[in-house]
């Protein structure tokens, strides 16, 4: 909300959308950002809705390592 108010006070271009991390494993955007978006008429474009492949069905329970070439494998290599 502070960024929106600052934008208005400065006469800057208004916000039109937010892109928060949001998926079934991380729903913290619901605590504050969704309410602000609704009140201000902003669009919401979820970032990482499939959590880098974990929610896509490509990685099955019991899999020791993520499949080669997936984002999950890349993330684990990079730390």
TrEMBL record:
<dbReference type="InterPro" id="IPR050523">
    <property type="entry name" value="AKR_Detox_Biosynth"/>
</dbReference>
<protein>
    <submittedName>
        <fullName>Aldo/keto reductase</fullName>
    </submittedName>
</protein>
<feature type="region of interest" description="Disordered">
    <location>
        <begin position="58"/>
        <end position="79"/>
    </location>
</feature>
<feature type="domain" description="NADP-dependent oxidoreductase">
    <location>
        <begin position="10"/>
        <end position="67"/>
    </location>
</feature>
<dbReference type="InterPro" id="IPR036812">
    <property type="entry name" value="NAD(P)_OxRdtase_dom_sf"/>
</dbReference>
<dbReference type="GO" id="GO:0016491">
    <property type="term" value="F:oxidoreductase activity"/>
</dbReference>
<dbReference type="Pfam" id="PF00248">
    <property type="entry name" value="Aldo_ket_red"/>
</dbReference>
<dbReference type="InterPro" id="IPR023210">
    <property type="entry name" value="NADP_OxRdtase_dom"/>
</dbReference>
<keyword id="KW-0560">Oxidoreductase</keyword>
């Amino acid at each position: 909300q502070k960024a929106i108010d600052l934008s208005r006070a400065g006469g800057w271009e208004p916000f039109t959308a937010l892109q928060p991390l949001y998926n079934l494993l991380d729903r913290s955007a619901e605590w504050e950002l969704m309410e602000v978006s609704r009140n201000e008429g902003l669009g919401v474009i979820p970032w990482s809705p499939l959590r880098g492949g974990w929610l896509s069905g490509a990685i099955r329970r019991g899999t020791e390592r993520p499949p080669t070439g997936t984002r999950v494998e890349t993330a684990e290599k990079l730390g």
